[in-house]
Design brief:
Ribosomal Protein S5, domain 2; alpha/beta; single chain; 262 residues; 21% strand; 6-stranded mixed β-sheet; 39% helix; globular
Length: 262
């Protein structure tokens, strides 16, 4: 048998170690989620046969057009994502890879995460109601707003809920619709004072919006860079910082006035 040099043996061992590490890298689960465009819902309409926004204690008007809240959908929090999944997602325009902690920041069990997401949605709906009634000068002691949307969690529909409540009660303040008859989508958190906050996943949400017929997309101004990077054809981008700014932009859109730009 020919002699095998010490150098050759060392190289063979190193190659075996590298191969083992590569195998682990390929097959070991990664702390990421694969996300893609999710459902959208017209907050002026119904979800599973129930109106998404129901108002009592004041007159409600008939609306036209659509205000569509948008979502992303991600691999389940307990699902394993591997290198091959990430590799495939890299080449798909309708998929992205995000740190799991940014998609499911609460951690814990699946049940804990679902509970946390539902609380964020409830808190968002409460803030949207507060911001809308404050803008309209209506007392929450006299006017009741119920928001119903199944199978959606998180706070990112806050802005659209607020606009939907205002459109249901007051429209543009002159008897017309906030939408001007258009299909308008958007995303953004909101607090009780009407400040709009960032949400993440904007490029995929834009895809969902355009897929479902939107021609205008409201985006938190701080996410303009992401929003412009992969803006779908036929979708007009409008950045907003506050509820008042969003209402002013929609007024300008209806009247042909100057719109804010990213």
């Amino acid at each position: 048998m020919p002699n095998v040099s010490r150098r050759t043996r060392i190289l063979a061992v190193c190659a075996a170690v590298v191969a083992a590490l590569l195998a682990v890298a390929v097959f070991a689960p990664l702390p990421v989620s694969i996300v893609e465009p999710g459902l959208t819902a017209d907050v002026l309409g119904a979800d599973q046969g129930t109106q998404i926004i129901t108002v009592s204690g004041t007159q409600v008007r008939k609306t036209s057009g659509q205000l569509r809240m948008v979502t992303i959908q991600a691999t389940a929090p307990d699902a394993s994502v591997h290198f091959t999944d990430v590799w495939k997602a890299w080449f798909k325009k309708d998929q992205a890879v995000m740190p799991r902690d940014s998609v499911y920041p609460s951690g814990g069990s699946v049940k804990d995460i679902e509970k946390a997401n539902q609380k964020e949605m409830t808190d968002s709906q409460d803030a949207a109601t507060t911001a809308a009634l404050k803008h309209l000068g209506l007392s929450p002691a006299k006017v009741t707003v119920d928001l119903h949307l199944e199978d959606v969690g998180g706070p990112s529909a806050g802005l659209l809920f607020t606009l939907g409540i205002i459109d249901k009660i007051d429209g543009d303040g002159r008897g017309g619709d906030l939408t001007g008859g258009r299909t308008i989508a958007g995303t953004g958190t909101i607090d009780g004072s009407g400040k709009v906050g960032a949400v993440g996943g904007v490029p995929l949400k834009e895809q969902a919006a355009r897929r479902d017929g939107a021609t205008v997309f409201l985006v938190p101004r701080g996410e303009c860079s992401d929003a412009k990077a992969e803006l779908p054809s036929g979708l007009r981008l409008i950045p907003v910082d506050t509820l008042d700014g969003a209402l002013d932009a929609l007024d300008a859109l209806r009247s042909g006035g100057r719109l804010p730009a990213c």
